Amino acid sequence: MSKLNGDGKPSEAVASLPVMTQLEMALRFLKLGAIGFGGGVAVIALMEQECVQRRQCVETEEFLHGVGLGQILGPFAVNTAIFIGYRMFGLGGALLAQVAFLAPSVLLVIVLSWLYFSFNQIPSLQSALAGLAPVVIALILSAAWSMGRKSVKSTVAIALLLGAVLGSLARINPVWILVIAGAIGYLLKLGKPRPPAQTAHGLLTLPLSMQVLPHQPLAMLTMVSGLATVGWITLAIVFLKVGFIFFGGGFVLIPVLHQQLVTELGWLTPQQFIDGVAISQLTPGPMAVLATFTGYRVAGIPGALVATVALFLPATLLMWGISHFYQNLRHVTAAKDFLAGVNPAVVGLILAAAIALAPGALHWDRPLSLVLGAVALVLLTRLKWHPAFVLAIGALTGTLAPSWV
């Protein structure tokens, strides 16, 4: 095994570290990509066990830096895989680790997308998806709760969160919502000093102020059978733009994609978007594989691959640069006051996305959908159940009691 320093040259490896070939590294990340259900922190825990404790691919300090820096842009679990691959084998290792890590999820989403769009009229599949919908709402709410507990700790923060919810529901451009929230945080000096070890972790909620794209004329494309005739270049441009503003990862991406894919472009219906989120959660990969689902809807398997590559490309290039100049980027300074105002607004945007999606998932005339959503929320937030198990309960409930969900 060869480890690289900040200039991209091999550094002195600890003699006791086991030797690992590029093929062995690829197989390790392929396994992590296949079993890492839950994404995010759950995958990071598995990665730490495999790459630090068992195989000693990188040292503990390096791993923590990779996780922290990986949260700047895009899904941080994928970025951490890129970081480790680069530190071990340079640019080729980074690309190999990323592809191996993402391959199981992308392939599974393509298969599920084919089943969904080919056979979604089959009653059993429709019933299962109906049961998944309330659980998806619970997943989004649980993510908002988890983030809110860390960033909403004052009266001002609560006000910023509520303001973001109301502003989003009123269709105010989220760019302005977040810029205003950040300005308030800066003016009121809301940021608090943090221990140095937590500085990089604080990048988890870097500003989303650029995460919503301006209105695109693409929605005016000629419609055929209710869906725009979209070329691969158009598909790539849309997801490339989202990739450039993909800060935070995970459920933070939902309001961005919902506005772009449902509200502005009409590539997905609200129900298809909910089902796409559910399908992405049934895979071991990141939430960003929702791009694969959308790409398949627009242009089949080639569209799925184009959308996936375009979404991940900006973060990939950034992580290559970060990994190359790692030694010079160990200390990151953030605008804490501005981010302290933005963070509650981010939570508000996620809550607003859940509220916007709820009418398609929760129905007063089908009380079981309400009960299922409430039970799922308790299982996720209080009992800390794995999302895959909760989604399985939703699908099973929908299949067994389709007229009640």
Write a concise synopsis of the structure shown.
The chain is mostly helical and 405 residues long.
Description:
There is one protein chain. The protein has 405 residues and is mainly alpha-helical. The chain has 2 domains: 11-101; 144-360, no CATH class. Helix content is 65%, strand content 2%. The chain has helices at 22-35, 40-54, 60-69, 76-119, 123-151, 155-169, 174-188, 232-244, 253-264, 270-281, 290-324, 336-357, 367-381, 387-400, and strands at 3-4, 10-11, 223-224, 227-228. Strands 1-2 form a two-stranded antiparallel ribbon. The N and C termini lie far apart (53 Å). The model is unreliable at 6-18 and 194-229 (pLDDT under 50).
